[in-house]
Write a structure and sequence with these properties.
Elements (H helix, E strand, L loop, with lengths): L1 H34 L10 H10 L6 H37 L12 H11 L8 H8 L4 E2 L8 E2 L6 H15 L4 H11 L4 H29 L44
Length: about 270
């Protein structure tokens, strides 16, 4: 439990860095629109922004020079933020590995997404079924049928942070030749709209994440030891799992013990 709290604290910090980076890039973009003929693309890396600023026409006038200086200062801040993000990702990757999670092996889940899942969910075994988990994270579409027409709409309930991880996972899988992309195309072939197919894909990926986290939890549980360092019963068990049992080394051995002769009282 302590590790999951640490992961949640660090992934919150990682999200703050991401939001700060987005704000800085947006401000650099607006400044470059005024400094470069034709403007610049919206999403810039630090190297691209630095190159555009170096190759921009020489600033003429105090207003242009001020924009130029502010853009250079923001690019320096972006360099610092990117270094902090890389360090945060490295730390989260180590913690995810220490937790025994294999979530990063799923296409579309990086160290930050895996850490968010671990930090917010803690023990996946508290969800009895994949449907229970999908309802909790908001991936289960809501019924919105009318007459003979059966429709579903997006659920705004549930844990939005986990829902965002699933959304990013779905978008990344659609960009590559993945099982998620094949699933999405099958739903389109069934007559679903693009948004309906995307919602179906997120619901499917929710089940994939649930099964992977459940497998990781069982793997960790198999390696846990009970009191005294013996493998077998643990001090904590899942509410849905089997009752802990003792192994042969903890059971009483067959055969009767040697009886001591009784001493007769005088």
């Amino acid at each position: 439990m302590i590790l999951t709290v640490v992961v949640r604290l660090l992934v919150d910090r990682r999200d703050e860095l991401g939001r700060t980076r987005t704000d800085i890039v947006s401000r650099i973009h607006h400044l470059l629109l005024e400094l470069i003929p034709g403007g610049a693309k919206k999403f810039l890396t630090r190297g691209q922004a630095s190159y555009l600023l170096r190759t921009a026409p020489p600033p003429a006038g105090i207003v242009a020079r001020t924009r130029h200086d502010l853009a250079r200062e923001l690019i320096e801040e972006l360099t610092t933020i990117d270094a902090k993000i890389r360090a945060a990702d490295k730390q989260l990757r180590q913690l995810v590995t220490e937790h025994g999670s294999t979530l990063t092996s799923l296409h579309g889940i990086g160290p930050s997404g895996a850490a968010r899942l671990i930090g917010d969910i803690a023990d996946i075994r508290r969800f009895r079924t994949p449907a229970h988990f999908a309802s909790w994270n908001g991936a289960a579409p809501l019924e919105a049928s009318s007459g003979d027409q059966r429709r579903h709409r997006l659920s705004r309930a549930g844990n939005r942070r986990i829902n965002r991880v699933l959304h990013i996972m779905a978008i990344v899988q659609l960009r590559r030749d993945t099982p998620g992309r094949a699933y999405y195309r099958r739903r389109l072939a069934e007559g679903k709209t693009t948004m309906e197919a995307l919602r179906a894909l997120k619901r499917h990926l929710s089940d994939v994440v649930y099964k992977r986290m459940l497998h990781d939890a069982k793997t960790r549980g198999a390696g846990e030891t009970g009191p005294g360092g013996h493998t077998g019963a643990t001090l904590q068990s899942s509410a849905d799992g089997p009752i802990p049992t003792a192994v042969s080394s903890d059971k009483s051995q067959p055969g009767s013990a040697t009886k001591k002769p009784k001493t007769k009282s005088p």
